[in-house]
Amino acid sequence: MAIAAELYALQEIDLALDRDVARLAEIEDGLRESEELVQTRQLQEEKAQAVTELRARQKELEWDVDEVRAKASEVEAKLYGGTVRNPKELSDLQADLSALQSQTRKREDTLLGILVELDDAESELKRADSAYAETRAKWQAEQEELRTEKSQIEPEVQLLEVRRSDRSGAIDGAALSLYKLLRERRGGQAVAKVERGMCQGCRITLPMSILQKARTALELVQCVSCERVLFVN
């Protein structure tokens, strides 16, 4: 096989390897948690924390209300129990009872506000739970697809690497060095086919003298414009 044809065959392997390796890198990146998953989980955690704090506040207020109610009941029992007859003491008890009843109403109003806020927070948490569950299910399905694709590509890469090693081992060292240099300079494409007198790498029409040299395949011929090795099939 002519050296240009050998290099073209090697390039086909390398391009396939490039595609597979690039896809594997994309898959590895995709196997990480998505930004959407992280965001929905963070939102769910924030909503859950808000509900936890409101429930704790609810308990505290309920205890406070119960405590004030108990004190009011004690004062009311003394006031109307008949054991206290002194007008001054009765007046003081009435004032204490009024103050405790006022405290009870205020704390009940605060508790009511917390209950309304908690109801809203629980609704928001329910929506956040649903969004997170949906996003996670979608992400897990995508993960399974990516792992399946990865398991298919990895053997292909191993096979291509073996083929590349065999192919490159049979190519002249100088030609291989030129090929590697041009691959770096030309985005992975060091060899260009010639079709209808044109270099398919840069799409210019080649001089007849260059075409004749490329057709003889006795030596490597490079495009006068893009410098790629010319391959005439």
Explain this structure to me?
It is a single chain. By secondary structure, the protein is mainly alpha-helical. 77% of the residues lie in helices and 4% in strands. It has five helices and three strands; from the N terminus they run ααααββαβ. A three-stranded mixed β-sheet has the order 2-1-3. The longest helix is centred in the middle third of the chain and has 83 residues. It is rod-shaped and about 130 Å long.
Task: Round the Cα radius of gyration to an integer and report it.
Answer: 41 Å
Q: Kindly report the spatial arrangement of strands forming the biggest sheet.
A: 2-1-3
Please indicate the percent range of residues in DSSP E strands (runs of 2 or more): under 5%
Molecular shape: rod-shaped
Termini gap: 11 Å
Helix content: over 70%
Largest sheet report: 3 strands, mixed
Based on helices, strands and strand pairing, what is the structural class?
mainly alpha
Strand tally is 3
Average of per-residue pLDDT values: 95
Poorly predicted runs of 5 or more residues: none
- Specify the number of helices: 5
Secondary-structure element sequence?
HHHHEEHE
List the helices and strands and how they pair.
Layout: H1 3-30, H2 35-80, H3 87-169, H4 173-185, E1 191-195, E2 198-199, H5 208-216, E3 229-231
Parallel strand pairs: 1-3
Antiparallel strand pairs: 1-2
